[in-house]
Design brief:
By secondary structure, this protein is α/β, with parallel strands linked by helices. The chain has 2 domains: 367 residues, Rossmann fold, CATH 3.40.50.12780; 111 residues, GMP Synthetase, Chain A, domain 3 (2-Layer Sandwich). The protein has 15 helices and 28 strands. A 9-stranded mixed beta sheet has the order 2-1-11-10-14-15-16-17-18, with helices on both faces. It has a 5-stranded mixed beta sheet with strand order 4-3-5-7-6, sandwiched between helices. A 4-stranded antiparallel beta sheet has the order 19-20-22-23. Strand 14, helix 10 and strand 15 form a beta-alpha-beta unit. Helix 1 crosses helix 2, helix 2 packs across helix 3 and helix 9 packs across helix 10. The protein starts with a helix and ends with a helix.
Length: 495
């Protein structure tokens, strides 16, 4: 359906701009012509296989992604932010024998016995196809997306073209993009959220997708330059974008410092991790039309979304049209719609575990209000029990903390303890006294067993670079606890 819809867009208006990048642009007619030619080239060079796509953000990435889909092969996008060992794990785990890249020298260092098969100029970028020195292992999926997660090695989630189409089509129906829209890609294209909800949903609507190298958007090694993101959004006159909470927080601070509002934006989705309602409200006050959503790779990305027509700050919105939700007696959220084929791994694929009605357990704790909006209250596996036998969802407490002005990040600990401790990241100008006051205000909103009894001040923000956040902004709790183990131990030892 996805390729059929794109071909229809090309037939209706072949001269309309589809992709815009640093090295040039492609109309819808040119896009689908390149997709067709590359799909033919791939099938001429090799038998159907799993092929890794390891490139920086560019129009070429999108062309190749669609060409692999058109060829009927399995695409395995490799995130640039993965470490060398994570990249090798994904390649081996997925059974990939071929690779498309714009950085062949770097990959030859990882796989020196590789064979260079061919190279093409795709949307102004030179792309090399390499045969890796390992056996291909078919999966039957159209895409295997790897997510770093909070622990362990990356997991390969197998998705069909139908899975991805359902999400993209639902996003289109809810957000109603049109030919005048200009979607600005902020996140790496190897992330499913940008790939499906950003690129696919925009292209099947006839919109223009603007895609620059990650460095031009602000990602530079372990640093992020918010001024570059702001300039990219401003100069491109973008109307839509997708952000993760950390980027939204930085953009809100940048606008609050007096930079001109981005009045051309009409819809900015934010997801990947819990977003404080206060941050959403601050964004709206600064003219940023931000709407929180929720999703998981196992459902091809987005599951719920707030929209301009149906919006409650603090909620994750309502289910997409193709999605059904329910909660079990323990409060865990179950989802039905666009469910993945299974996990792909070297030791054998693992099928999804569904109930008798076809629902998948998400591992998230959630509830629905009287108006139909859904709210997350934490991860089932993160729930801890205090020494008084009370169950506490740390995400609930953390959300209450970061709702307070001045508190940016928090990680709550309390398993088998008489009181809870929070490791907090505060705004630099906030004194210890002001942070304590903010925590006291948060405690007034919490029952006694969930309140914070003491604080550890983080020495630096939690980031993916220091291993304390995942790439999409979720806390890596074990790493945070390990980093501040001595401070936490000292607090409890002093009781």
């Amino acid at each position: 359906m996805l390729l059929q819809e794109l071909n229809l867009q090309a037939e209706r208006d072949p001269d309309r701009l589809a992709l815009q990048g640093m090295a040039g642009q492609l109309t819808y007619g040119e896009l689908m012509s390149e997709v067709s030619a590359l799909a033919t080239a791939l099938t001429t060079l090799a038998e159907p296989a799993s092929i890794a796509l390891a490139m920086d953000n560019s129009p070429a990435w999108i062309v190749l992604d669609l060409a692999v889909l058109a060829a009927g092969w399995t695409n395995v996008p490799i995130p640039a932010f993965f470490s060398a060992s994570q990249k090798q794990h994904a390649i081996q785990d997925a059974g990939v024998s071929l690779l498309l890249t714009d950085a062949s020298d770097a990959w030859l260092q990882l796989y020196p016995a590789s064979e260079l098969l061919d190279s093409w100029t795709v949307a102004g970028k030179t792309v090399t196809m390499m045969r890796l020195n390992q056996q291909d292992r078919a999966s039957g999926a159209q895409k295997i997306t790897y997510t770093s997660g909070t622990t362990g090695a990356p997991k390969g989630v197998c998705l069909t073209a139908q899975n991805m189409w359902q999400v993209a089509d639902s996003i289109r129906r809810l957000t109603q993009p049109d030919h005048a829209d200009r979607h600005f890609c902020v996140l790496p294209l190897a992330t499913l959220l940008e790939n499906v909800a950003g690129v696919y949903a925009s292209l099947i609507s006839g919109a223009t997708v603007i895609v620059y190298p990650c460095q031009e958007v602000g990602f530079s090694g372990s640093q992020f330059e918010i001024s570059r993101l702001y300039q990219g959004l401003a100069n491109s006159q973008a109307t839509t974008a997708i952000l993760i909470p950390e980027l939204l927080r930085a953009l809100v601070a940048y606008l609050h410092a007096g930079h001109p509002p981005l009045t051309h934006l009409r819809f900015v989705a934010v997801g990947g991790a819990k977003v404080a309602a206060l941050l959403i409200q601050q964004a709206h006050q600064l003219g940023l039309p931000v709407y929180e959503g929720y999703g998981l790779s196992e459902c091809a990305s987005v599951v719920t979304l707030n929209t301009p027509q149906a919006h409650k700050p603090g909620s994750i919105g309502m289910p997409l049209p193709h999605v059904q939700l329910r909660v079990d007696h323990g409060g865990e959220l179950w989802v039905k719609g666009a469910i993945y084929q299974g996990y792909h791994q070297a030791g054998g694929d693992i099928a999804p575990v569904l109930d008798e009605e076809g629902y998948l357990a998400t591992g998230d704790l959630a509830y629905q209000d009287a108006d139909g909006y859904w709210y997350l209250s934490g991860r089932k596996k993160n729930m801890f029990i205090t020494s008084f036998g009370r169950n506490v969802s740390p995400e609930w407490v953390e959300s209450t903390l970061i709702h307070q002005a001045g508190l940016l990040q928090a990680c709550v600990i309390g398993e088998a303890r008489p009181f809870n401790v929070a490791v907090v990241v505060a705004q630099p100008q906030f004194s210890v006294e002001r942070v304590a006051q903010a925590v006291a205000r948060a405690n007034l909103e919490l029952p006694d067993y969930a309140q914070i009894g003491d604080l550890v001040f983080a020495r630096q923000p939690f980031t993916p670079q220091n291993g304390q956040l995942t790439a999409n902004g979720r806390l890596k709790r074990d790493m945070i606890v390990q980093a501040y183990a001595a401070d936490i131990h000292a607090i409890y030892e002093g009781i």
